[in-house]
Amino acid sequence: MKMRFIILISFFVIGAMAGKYSKEMNEQKASDNSNNQVEFRIAKLNQIWEKAIRMQLAPVRLSELHSDLKIQEKDELQWKKLKAEGLDEDGEREAKLRRNFNIILAKYGMDGKKDTRTLDSNRLKDHDVNEGDTFDDPRLDKLWNKAKTSGKFSDEELQTLQREFKHHKDRINEYNIVMDTVSRTEEIHKNVISPLEGEVKEHVLHQKHADLKQRMRDLNQGFERLRKISHEGYSADSEFKEPRVIELWEMAKRSNLSEDELDSLKEELRHFETKVEKHQHYQEQLELSHQKLKHVEALGDKEHIMRNKEKYNTLAEKAREMGYKMKKHLQDLTNKISQNGLRHNEL
């Protein structure tokens, strides 16, 4: 009887340890062969990150990817909690997560397709505009060439306008990616057998079409704004300089917010613009540090290499941290404006 009791206790202890071990293995960050912790709590995001490192993406681009993956990680972990609570029954949030993940893959050339979209060389184009700096869209190229030869813009204003054009080009790329995922979903939908499954996928497809329509409206409004600025120049009372901030402000003005709400939001957007500018500063410093590190590595001075590598790694970490904070703030502001606008339209 005593022996049987000991065996039962042993099984209980081993079982508890196994459960604890499994939980720790699921929750902890996986480690590589050199015991360095990897970046993300979700396996597929780690795989993308490791692939990006193997691809040797340029430092600023790698930093941008890291920020995008951190946002994706945050959203997926939040969704898992909601799903565990029985929410998101229609699968709308899940579909949006999958769509955002597909955008990340395509944006960084990891979707397994030969990318016909022009990927940035990661050289920060804050200075002279070279002849090859086109936007892969005839309307944008024509508008840009007119603007830069019009004499209506100072050098600083041209740099701001160029960032706005590039931002619009990125939005076009995102639209094309979403349109591609909608086409693939429609193909899958044709092969559905179960009526219940068909209803769910019909709903997901409807959400994707609604997203496409909104993106197209935003693109048209964005292009009209670029066309107006290109012909008339920047007005003296322009509120903001950064494209993402301008886009948010234009969205807010269309959302039927009250004057007090707009004033409050304007102040918040000013703080956000400062954050964007600070992030850009770190990206510039990261690029310069990378160029210096490559130069030092070519010379072969080990001590000098180590010092520059430490500085580069510190800047890379700071740029990633700033990038995440900036993109999370952008996400929060976008949701705030969208929800407030929707609330006012329903009243």
* Helix-strand sequence: HHHHHHHHHH
pLDDT < 50 runs, ≥5 residues: 5-35, 115-132, 342-347
Q: Helicity, in percent?
A: over 70%
Supply the helix-strand structural class: mainly alpha
| Beta strands, count | 0
Amount of beta strand: under 5%
N- and C-termini, Cα separation = 74 Å
Indicate the overall shape.
globular
Structure annotation, total helices: 10
How does the major sheet shape up?
none
What's this entry about, in short?
By secondary structure, the protein is mainly alpha-helical. It contains ten helices and no strands. The longest helix has 45 residues, at 302-346.
How would you describe this structure to a colleague?
Residues 255-282 form a coiled coil. InterPro entries: A2-macroglobuin_RAP, Alpha_2_MRAP_C, MG_RAP_rcpt_1, RAP_D2, RAP_D3, RAP_sf. Keywords: Coiled coil, Signal. The N and C termini lie far apart (74 Å). The protein is globular. The relative contact order is 0.08. The chain is built from ten helices and no strands. α3 crosses α10 and α6 packs antiparallel against α7. By secondary structure, it is mainly α.
Question: Secondary structure elements and their pairing?
Answer:
Elements: H1 2-27, H2 43-55, H3 59-84, H4 92-107, H5 138-148, H6 155-190, H7 195-232, H8 243-253, H9 259-299, H10 302-346
Domain Alpha-2-macroglobulin receptor-associated protein: 7-116
GO cellular component, one term: cis-Golgi network
Signal peptide: 1-18
List its traits:
single chain, 347 residues, mainly alpha, 10 helices, 76% helix, globular, disordered C terminus, lipase binding, low-density lipoprotein particle receptor binding, Alpha-2-macroglobulin receptor-associated protein, RAP_D3
